[in-house]
Every structure is written in C-alpha cells, then in structure tokens.
C-alpha cells in the first residue's frame, strides 16, 4: 500500500532501520539511558537488610500499588506534621523493573504486548459457561507484568469517566449515603494526584489539580498527524457535536445539541489527554516512586516476586508467601497491620481464591481450604468491549507510518534531543464520547434480565442513560484488532467501544497451582443490549467515514469493512442492516484492556467482595485496592479512576490503623 503511494522500498527500509537502530542503541545503553531505579532496593534485599515483618504488604505495583506504597510510607518528617508515625511498607511485584525502552518511549507501548513485560492472558474461545449458547471469541488480554503494572505498558490516556458513574455507585450500593463514593468526594482525590499542564482557561481549576505528582497534558500540534484534524471536523459536522479540549470537564462533555437531524443525544470530540512528559511515558512509577521516595528507609520494593497465597491465622490476614525469582525459593513475609491486594481484576480474584476466599464449591473442587465462602469473587467481570473499523487513506494526509517515513532520522532526532514530534505520541490522538439514540431509559428497561445481573441492576439501569454509552477512539494506522497493527499500511482505524456494557464475565481457577493462569469466561457481547449498542457505534463510524470519503481523506475501506458496506447497501430493511452490523461486531469483538468488577464494592457480601472502605468481607486485615473493586465500570479509560481509588484507600487505611 505504501509503495503505491510513492514511498520507495528504500524509504520504507530506511524508516524501519532507523527505528531498529533506536531500539538497539536503547538496549545497548539502557544501563545509562534507563537506569534501574531499584538498584539500591535490590542491594538491600541481597544484603538481607529487609524485615521479616512489615506494617503493610502491598501486592502489585501497578496504578494502585505504586500510589499506596508512596502514601503509606510517608517519611517520619512528613507524617509528624499530621501527628502520625511512619509505617514500614513492602511492595511486591511479579514482573521486573521498568528499565527498558519499551516502558519509556510512548510510541513503543504496543511492543510490550506478547513480551516478558506482559502476563499474556487469553479469554475462552468456546461456548460461554455462564451464558449457554453464546459462542466466545478467543481474545488476547495483556496485563502489565512490570514495575508500574499497566501504567508502564498502556496507551497513557487520562480519562475519569462521568460524574454519574460515581453518583450511581453511591445510590445503588449505599442508598445515596456514602460520603466516600460520590463525585463530589472523588473529584478531590482526582485533583490530589494530578499535575495538569496547560492554562486554567483551557483546563479549569474546578476540575483539575496543579500540584500533584502525576503529569497530564494534551497532545501538541506538532505531535498530531495531519489526518486527525479533518476526522475531528467530520465527527463534529455529521453528529452535530462540539469540538473540545478537555474530556475531564463535564461542562464540556455533556453539552446537548439541538441541531436538526442529529444522530446522537449528546457528545463531544477532540484530542486525548495523556500521561506523557518530555516526549516519554509518565507512568505511576515516574510520579509516585521517585528517587526520593525509593530512598525512604521504611519502604521496600521487591520485583520478580510472585505472590502465591495470603497467610491467615483463622480469618485474620497475617502475611503472604511469594516465590522469589532471583533466589529461586518461596519466602514468607508477615504483616502487622494489613495485606493490600492491588494485582488487578484478573490476578486479585485468582489470589483470593487460591488463599481460600471465593465460591466454596469451586475451592473444594481444587482441594483448597475455605476461609470464607463468597461466590462474588471473580464474578461481574466487565470491559469496554470494542471493534475495529480500518480504512486506507489518500496521499493528501499523514498516517503515523507516512509521517515517520517522510523523515525517519529527523523524527528520531526530534524524539531524543528535542523531545517532540510524531514519535512522542501514543498513536491514539482522537477521542469521542457519545450518547446514542439507542440509549433511552424505556428501551434499556425493556431488555430481558440476565442471570448475571446485579441485585441492584434496576438501579444501575435507571442511570444507564444519564451519560454517554459509547466512546470512539481512533489511530492513524491500519489496525485489524487490538495489538495487530499493519504498521506498513497507510490508513486510519475507528475503534468504537461500549462504555456501559450489560454483559458480565467471570474469572475462575484452572487449578490450585498459582502459576496456572485462571479461566477467563468473558461473556462479552452476550447481552442483546450490548450487541445493539455496538452495532449502532459501527453505523455512526461508517456515517462519518462517508463524509471523509467525500472530502477525499479516506481512499477506501479495507476488505472486511468493504464487505460490511456492501451487505448494508444490498439490505432490504432496517432489520437486515441491523443484523449485518451486529454480525460484524460479534465477528470482530475485541478488548480495550479495562477489566473491572471482579471483587466489587457493595454494602454486603451478598453482592460484593469488599465494603465501602475496601475491606474484604468475612476476614480481617485484608483490603483490595485496584480496578476489581469498581461496582460498575466507569465511562472512560480506567487508569485515572484506579489512581483515585488508591488515593482514597490510602487515607482510609491510615485512618483505620491510627484509631
């Protein structure tokens, strides 16, 4: 495709040669360019300077764990200001440190997939075990196995979701009485960690923090390829929605349109906000595990430490057992105050079940002694289910690959020395939030209840259409599915996804061996509502693509999209068109890597795994702080909400243990 555009074979080879040289140089000089920030920590363990017992043990160093390690280990001087004493903290991470170019150069994040930095999970590819008759597509599900977890491997997008997400948690789980989980309170914690770049007129101080550790910025003009601008304009024109800068300001994202013949109830389009600084990823490790923090005498960080079980004395958590990859042996560490699980929505429920907390029938099947019977462990799995709609572009506009091909060595020079250019982007510059015409209160309530519905499902359904129901990302390359980018092709891909899916899956044990991966029954698109809504999202993307073809931005669709368009054009009824759209969604369903809900918060163990203060039901001194505690998935990327949850949890933990 690129050869036909006038890009010579020599130019294509020179581009990949330049990138290859960058990677080789990065690895050869990684000791200097990406110094292992944990060298002093490694030495403490090798010299036996760690403790047998800590106040807190945090399992997992991802978006929650790194925040917790920072906040719970405030130095004595910092804590004296609050009349508190410093606590000893052990942070355990199964993966290695983040001293690799793949975790730092923002444009390389897709290369972390299928690597040693990734757990490399897969969903079932058979009939769903919880939804008879629903045939599942096997899907690759990467999770960060590295210091920083997914914050070191993801697309770096900063979104919080809608205010309605947090207010519905409050109403549906705690009858509106929670002082913790409501938008007014969580906003303070979003702002606490955030250091928003840009002026206050563009990013209001009402919704953004300026003094936190975690840098958030928008893509600059010189980072965005030229095709993004006409695509943003096409979305705005065809769907009658505003172009905005700030996707974390509800005044901007919730503007209703009164334009005639509008296709949606409300929406907004614009460029994404990201955690990138000086041309490189700014992970939670960069923000919360700085050199100064890692020098704290009371903080210990151990990588390549795979936690295999939680230790109990009766129903009281007293420590953990982990396998130390360096020492090649199992090690036990005790916790005086609490064990805190921050492994994410797949690892956390697996560890709970391996330790005796879960559905007693499943535990007994694997000869695991039951500490507490709670069938909710591993249930209620949600993700922002998506599909990919790739097109080829005309030569008048840049894609990611064509912009790099034009001057590969200059782009690498700009990245390394000017800290700017196309290689400093995440490749996902466009963002769209929409509330579709399918999202109407009466329509949602008409869907048949499912056996995996929540007890409070009607409450959540009542709030289902309070805000957006779909999001559309886009990437200036040809992407056939998640992680499968045709980087040699000149194109653009629409990525529509569900923000409020009704389908829920499960995570269950394959065996009692902690090194066996769990069984993930996604059940995604198993609900009629989800099929109809994603089909509508595909239709809207095709509508925008027609405008882009008229404007000579898009050249033609890829083969699978062309077949869909042909089927739609030959259809004799709206019902037949809907069938083709749903079939496309089912055949091409994919994940956005935002798993949530498998240890959800609720007011009792009948509906959840943790209480309002994130304490695990039925046991003592054990909490969960990660995306698995979300009662219902938020309407947006999940990394920022997880950091917020960790900020709240830190205050809860310190308050409860200072009583």
UniProtKB/TrEMBL annotation:
FAD binds at residue 307. The keyword Flavoprotein applies. GO terms for molecular function: flavin adenine dinucleotide binding; oxidoreductase activity, acting on CH-OH group of donors. SUPFAM superfamilies: FAD-linked reductases, C-terminal domain (SSF54373), FAD/NAD(P)-binding domain (SSF51905). Keywords: FAD, Flavoprotein. The keyword ATP-binding does not apply. Residues 344-358 form the Glucose-methanol-choline oxidoreductase N-terminal domain. Its cofactor is FAD. InterPro entries: FAD/NAD-bd_sf, GMC_OxRdtase, GMC_OxRdtase_N, GMC_OxRtase_C. It holds the Pfam family GMC_oxred_N. This is Glucose-methanol-choline oxidoreductase N-terminal domain-containing protein. It comes from Naegleria lovaniensis.
């Amino acid at each position: 495709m690129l050869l036909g555009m006038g890009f010579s074979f020599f130019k294509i080879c020179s581009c990949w040669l330049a990138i290859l040289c960058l990677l080789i140089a990065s690895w050869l000089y990684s000791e200097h360019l990406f110094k292992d920030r944990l060298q002093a920590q490694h030495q403490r363990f090798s010299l036996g300077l760690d403790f047998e017992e800590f106040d807190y043990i945090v399992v997992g160093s991802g978006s929650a764990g790194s925040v917790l390690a920072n906040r719970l280990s405030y130095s004595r001087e910092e804590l004296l200001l609050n009349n508190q004493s410093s606590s000893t903290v052990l942070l355990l991470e199964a993966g290695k440190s983040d001293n690799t170019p793949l975790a730092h150069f923002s444009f390389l994040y897709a290369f972390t997939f299928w690597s040693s930095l990734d757990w490399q999970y897969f969903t079932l590819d058979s009939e769903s075990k919880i939804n008879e008759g629903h045939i599942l597509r096997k899907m690759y599900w990467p999770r960060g196995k590295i210091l920083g977890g997914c914050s070191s491997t993801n697309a770096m997008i900063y979104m919080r979701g809608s205010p309605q997400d947090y207010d519905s948690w409050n109403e549906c789980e705690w009858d509106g009485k929670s002082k913790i989980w409501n938008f007014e309170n969580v906003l303070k914690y979003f702002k606490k960690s955030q250091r928003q770049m840009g002026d206050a007129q563009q990013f209001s101080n009402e919704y953004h923090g300026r003094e936190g550790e975690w840098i958030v910025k928008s893509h600059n003009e010189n980072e965005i390829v030229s095709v993004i601008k006409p695509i943003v304009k096409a979305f705005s024109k065809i769907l009658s929605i505003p172009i905005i800068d700030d996707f974390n300001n509800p005044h901007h994202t919730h503007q209703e349109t009164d334009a005639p013949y509008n296709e949606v109830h409300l929406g907004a389009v614009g460029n994404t906000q990201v955690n990138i600084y000086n041309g490189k990823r700014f992970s939670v490790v960069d923000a919360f595990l700085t050199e100064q923090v890692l020098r704290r005498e009371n903080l210990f960080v151990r990588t390549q430490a795979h936690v295999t079980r939680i230790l109990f004395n009766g129903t009281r958590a007293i420590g953990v057992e982990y396998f130390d990859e360096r020492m090649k042996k199992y090690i036990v560490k005790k916790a005086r105050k609490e064990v805190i699980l921050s492994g994410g929505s797949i690892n956390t429920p697996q560890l709970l079940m391996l330790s005796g907390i879960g559905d007693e029938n499943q535990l007994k099947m694997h000869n695991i002694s039951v500490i507490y019977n709670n069938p909710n462990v591993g249930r209620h799995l949600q993700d922002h289910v998506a599909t990919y709609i790739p097109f080829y572009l005309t030569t008048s506009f840049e894609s990611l690959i064509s912009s790099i091909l034009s001057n590969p060595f200059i782009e690498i020079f700009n990245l390394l020395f000017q800290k700017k250019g196309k290689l400093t982007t995440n490749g996902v510059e466009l963002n769209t939030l929409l509330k579709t015409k399918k999202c109407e209160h009466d329509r949602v309530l008409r869907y048949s209840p499912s056996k995996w519905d929540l007890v409070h499902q009607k409450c959540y359904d009542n709030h289902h259409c309070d805000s957006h129901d779909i999001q559309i990302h886009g990437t200036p390359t040809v992407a056939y599915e998640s992680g499968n980018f045709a980087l040699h092709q000149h194109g653009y891909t629409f990525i529509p996804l569900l923000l409020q899916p009704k389908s829920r899956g499960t995570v269950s044990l394959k065996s009692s061996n902690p090194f066996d991966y769990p069984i993930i029954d996604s059940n995604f698109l198993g609900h009629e509502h989800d099929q109809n809504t994603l089909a509508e999202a595909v239709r809207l993307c095709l509508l925008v693509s027609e405008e882009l073809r008229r404007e000579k931005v898009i050249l033609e669709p890829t083969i699978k999209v062309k077949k869909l368009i042909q089927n739609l054009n030959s259809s004799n009824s709206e019902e037949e068109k809907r069938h083709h759209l749903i079939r496309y969604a089912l055949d091409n369903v994919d994940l956005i890597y935002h798993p949530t809900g498998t240890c959800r918060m609720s007011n009792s163990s009948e509906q959840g795994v943790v209480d309002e203060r994130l304490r695990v039901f039925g046991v003592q001194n054990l909490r969960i702080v990660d995306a698995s505690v979300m009662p219902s998935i938020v309407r947006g990327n999940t990394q920022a909400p997880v950091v917020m949850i960790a900020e709240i949890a830190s205050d809860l933990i310190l308050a409860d243990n200072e009583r």
